[in-house]
Each structure stands twice: as structure tokens, then as C-alpha cells.
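FYI - complex with zinc ion, inputs then prediction.
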Amino acid sequence: MAPIDRVSVGFVSVRLNDQIGMSAFGTLLHLARLNHFHGRDFRAAFGLHFHYRDDLSHLLAFSERNQSRLAAAAGISQELQGLWPVEPWQPFSGEGLWSALPWKLRACPSCLRAGYHSNLFQMPWMARCPWHRTRLISTCRKCERPLLEGFRQGLDLACCPCGTDLVNERAVLKGDPHQSERDDFLEAYLNWTAVERERTTMLWPEQHTGSGVDALAALWPVPPCLNQWRDSFAGCRPHIHMERLGRPCASSTLDQQAAKDLMRCAKSLWPEQAAMAELPAEFLPSLLSITRQIASPLPAISLTTREREALALEPVGSAASIPSRQDLMLLPVQRVANGLYLDVRVLHRAAYRVIANLSALLGLAKHEPTPATSSAHRLLLTATRRTLLRTYADGFTHVLGRYVPALYDQTRVRAGPRLPWIRIRRDPQGPQDVTIAWSTRQSWDADVKPVVR
Ligand SMILES: [Zn+2]
Ligand SMILES: [Zn+2]
């Protein structure tokens, strides 16, 4: 049996400072259970400020103040405390993205039994514990209540109202026999995330998105350096549509006119500026084809001849004989003089912000593209076009349906926006590849809950 430590404040614990990767929540669980502290003692014992409705694993992953109080109370080393936030567990930097995702305590039942929890288990791309090979759980395996339900009702941490105790105090005292496998995995994993963080930019819809968890998981399949643990990763998500774009070869350079179009487009797609965007002429054929595809199932009688023309449809003899609706005719893309314009208010707001942030990466370049950088620019432009087209398809369907409800009589028309989650990898030459994962369709009005950053 492992020797029992008595830290200066007098808590019973077992080699807490050897529990690499343990989260602040895991530390609280370990100490609370070995010292028989209940929720009402947490403030006096650990200085924790919380409400019973809070998910303690969430609070302790993001609240620096609670982390430092707990670390001081438990005598945790700086090094271990450095792994308490979520960032070291992510292959990208910044924690803002988590506010767009649902969070609930997720754990390995075998680790939990020994009083161990790591923020590794909160990462959506993980499916199993890499050292126990056990499937991760977020509910009690007996009654399917959330793991913290019992605590919310006044029971000890990790005790379920059905009578299941997820922690075994003897197992906590003995320590986990898989600790050396755990240390091996964690070393390799944390090296991987550190390398990826340096070369990855993430763009995500800044609003709460339930299926965003799956989109995020799909962006991080098994990394080659962790292939021996591949069964622990969530792997492919068949219901998440993915687009993978690589940097074109250097010979595919932009001519001067294309470079100018590109910069004009980047400057008109700007996060706070929701109005008319000036798009490169090369976007036109795809935009018209989408417009035509969506509008063509409409009964001939529902549109006037001029409206059909505006929507890129062939004229018909039996067109509607009502006055043409100006707003409807201005809906799709507008060609004015030499420019191509799109009213971006057609697009879902959160998706538009992703597109604008993507094109801002183009606009932020100090100079116009040169032959040396133009393949990276072309990659970003292609990514902007792909993201814009799908967002336009969803937005145009939504707005057209408002003018012509007959659109929804067509069974193949599916409504609701899909939102893009984008991973951009860089190398010394600039953006190297872009992967877009589309969350599944959600209700259009889900954007009433914007994320406060
Ligand atoms: Zn485990
Ligand atoms: Zn239960």
C-alpha cells in the first residue's frame, strides 16, 4: 500500500503530487473522500466558492481563484497545478471555445474508483481511458443519472442517489496499479498538444452549439504520434460533414487582378460589419448554381418572370402575375458594374462571424499576396469560399422560405443552419491546411443565446 501523506494542513492524501494530470476536480474528490468532507465543508476546508447547481469539474477547470485556493489548501506543486486549466489538454490555444459547448463531468469509471479525474477526459476527441481502456462515462452506469446528481442532492461527491458509490476509498488508498502506463500516455499526449498549439488556429461559431462537441472531436482524429492508443480516440464522426483543404502547389499563383479581388473581399467581410460583402468574381458560378438548385423546385406559379430571372431560373410561360417583390429580387448575389455583392444578412450570424474571422486572416497580412505567399492565400480563399457557399445555401433557403412558404412543401428541402468549426494548421510558409467540420443542422432561432466572451 502506498504511504499516506499528511500535508501541512493535516489532510489525509496519497501521493497527490505524483498524480500527474490529475484535475483540480480530481484533487477535490481525492481529498473530500479520504477526509470525509461534505459539500458544506468545502468552503472552510478548501476555500471553494460554489453553488450546488455548478458542475464542480467545470468550475475548477476555469476558475483561477478557486484553483489557487484549493492548491494552497492541499499543498499542490506549481507543476501539477499548471495542468488544472483546460488549455494544456487542447491541441489549440485559447479557452474561449468552451463557452460554445455544453460541459458535464466526464470520467473513466476505473480512474474514478481510485479517486482520479483528469481534464483529458473532458476533451471530446477522447472516448476511452488510454490506460484502463474503459469507455468514458458522464452518467451513472446503473441508473444513468449525471455523475454529480448525488452531490447536488447533498450526498458525498461521486455517490449516486441510486446507491452506487463511484469511488472506492480502499482503492484510493492503494493507488492505481496502472500509474506507469498513465504517466507514459500523458507524457506523449502533452507533448503532442504542446506542438499542435504552436501551429494551430481554431475558428468556431461563437454561440452555444450542442453538436459542436462532435464537430470539434471530428477535427482531431488519432494523431500519428499517439497511434498506439488509437482505440482511446473518438475517431470519425459519420454524421459530421468534413472538408479538408491543402495548400495548392507553389505554381498556382494568383495574378495581380486576382490578388486585388482577394484583398477587397477580405476587407469587406469583416466581423462587425454585417452589410454588403464584395466577393471575388470567381465565387459567382457556384453562388448562382446554389441559388438555382434551391429555387428550382418552387412551383412556377409562385414566382414572377423577373423574380425567376433574379434567382437564375429559366423563364416559364405560367409565371405568377403578381407584382415582383423587390426584396426577393435583391436576395441573391448582385452583380453591379464589375463587382459581385452579397448581402451577408442572408447568412446565419454565427456562421458569418466565422467566415469574417477566416477572411480576416487574409486581410491581416501586411501586404498584398506575393508569389511566395500566394499559395497560402489561395488556400484561405478556397476555405472562405467553401464556408461561404454552404452558409449561403442554408441562409438563402431560410429567407426564400419566408417569402415563398411553398418551398418547404418540397420534401428534399431541409431547413436549419449548419455551423462551421475550422482548424487551420500553419508551417513557416503560412497556412498549410484547413479542415472544416460542420455541426449538424440546428433550429434557426438557436442564436438567441449569444456567447459572451
Ligand atoms: Zn482510467
Ligand atoms: Zn446511479
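The CA atoms of residues 25 and 102 lie 18 Å apart. Residues 241-448 form one domain.
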